[in-house]
Amino acid sequence: MAPKYPANAPQAPAKPPKHAVDTRAAGAASKPFAGLSCLPPDLRAFLRNRSVTEIADLLRLGKGTASRIKRGIYPHAPNKLLKRWEAVRAAGTVPVGTWALRRVMADATVHEAVLWRGMLYSGAGLLGMRGRQIAVAPTADGGLLAQTLDLPPQRLPLTLVGEAEGTA
Q: Which of 129, 108, 123, 109 is nearest to 160 (CA)?
């Protein structure tokens, strides 16, 4: 039986060399958060500073969609994203400042309150939490957002009650 590829068979022509391609950033946009200039600056800051899970939970998106948006791959029509962002901002569930620890205290005018920058804030979620520590941050609507330090954490919107008198 003759060999399948005889030793004296002609050689195949040489293939042209492939061009080198840089694939280091294949999964990300070249300039994330610069893709849609129509996004409000506070939404861009929110997307930059939050985790994919938090973006998905607050904007009611799938984690895959939130991941693509975080990487700078935006939908063709961002109307739904902008509507959901407006709803999140209107609800006051997005803190705009840094978090600080405060102790829930008793006040003469309200049952439970939190002192923040000389003002007292209270909310229905603070009932029964006297003496416990919570994390608080200001929101865009002028209110305060509190988060318990327990697991799982709860977020509680707080509203202004009045000025603190004689407390430091």
A: 123
Q: Residue 17's pLDDT is what?
A: 81
Q: What is the DSSP string of the chain?
A: ---SS-TTSPPPPPPPPPPP---TTTTS-SSTT-S-TTS-HHHHHHHHHS-HHHHHHHHT--HHHHHHHHTT---S-THHHHHHHHHHHHHT-SB-S--EEEE-B--SSSSSBEEETTEEEE-GGGTT-TT-EEEEEEBTTS-EEEEESSSS--EEEEEEEEE-SS--
Prediction pTM value: 0.47
Segment 40-57 mean pLDDT: 84
If one counts every other C-beta atom within 10 angstroms of the C-beta of residue 134, the result is 23
Cα 102 → chain centroid? 23
Please identify which residue in the block is written with the tokens 């492939």.
18
Q: Which of 115, 120, 126, 112 shows the shortest CA–CA distance to 154?
A: 126
What mean pLDDT do residues 90-99 have?
71
Between the CA atoms of 24, 29, 34 and 40, what dihedral angle is there, to the nearest 10 degrees? -130
| Residue 115 CB-half CA count within 13 A | 12
- Region 139-157: mean pLDDT is 83
According to the model, what pLDDT value does residue 154 have?
Answer: 86
